Amino acid sequence: MKTLLFASLAAARRSLAVLSFLSISAFSFFPELAVSQTVYLVTNEGRHAVELLSNIVAHRLTERMPLEVAFEDYGSTERIAYLKEKLDVTGAPDSCTPAVGDLTYYAPWGNLAVFVKPFRHSEGLVPLGKLSPEALKAVKRSGDTVLRFEAAE
Question: Are residues 45 and 61 in the same domain?
Answer without folding.
Answer: yes
